[in-house]
Amino acid sequence: MSSFSTDFSGDFGVIEIPPEPPEPNPAYGRSPISAYARSWVRARATAVMEYTCQITRGSRPEGYDEDTLTFTPEGPRELVYQGVCRIWEVANTNSVVVGDTDIYQQSTNLSIPWDSPELVRRYDEVKILTAPQDSQMVGKRYEIQTVAKAGELRATRRFEVTGVM
Question: Measuring CA to CA, how many Å separate 47 from each of 84, 113, 116, 132, 156?
């Protein structure tokens, strides 16, 4: 038999594929992380949320009408969420060189409790209502840029935000 033969070789055993995937081990269930562990972590994450914030969603402006020469501004904003939150910055060691200047990057994140049923979307606006540790944060506004998804033990609903002037 040549090395390029298409004949069956007895050197390899027959691989048996089960007709259905095996049942999950009932000791683990769907996830190795227990419901108690999830609730404990989420309660601890919510306990450190000292700020209160309001998340609103604006309606899209109709824009400029060339026939009537009028501009229709954005309508009233819809309240999406109001309650406790946490906002924090994460500085990155990477820098971007612009001209002769190193610019260091920093991202700002916002968390709300995991069990909040509201659906927060990109471009929703966040306003800080109270901030016991930092009075200069009160009234600051941010815009949601990304909504973090994935992870088996997500403690909070997390979003990346940018400041709104």
Answer: 9, 9, 14, 14, 11
pLDDT, tens digit, for every residue of 101-147?
877 777 889 999 988 888 899 989 999 999 999 999 999 999 999 98
Q: Where are the beta strands (DSSP E) in the chain?
A: 51-57, 63-65, 70-72, 78-98, 101-113, 125-130, 141-147, 156-163
72's CB contacts (< 8 A; 6+ apart) are: 61, 62, 63, 65
pLDDT in tens, 13-64: 555 555 665 565 555 556 677 888 888 888 899 999 999 999 999 876 666 6
CA distance to 3, 13, 43, 60, 146, per residue, from 159 (Å): 58, 52, 19, 22, 6
Q: What angle do CA 141, 142, 147 make, to 5 degrees?
A: 150
Q: Which residues contact 70 (CB under 8 A, 6 or more apart)?
A: 64
Residues in the chain: 165
Structural Rg of the chain based on CA atoms: 26
Q: Please give the model's pTM, rounded to 2 decimal places.
A: 0.67
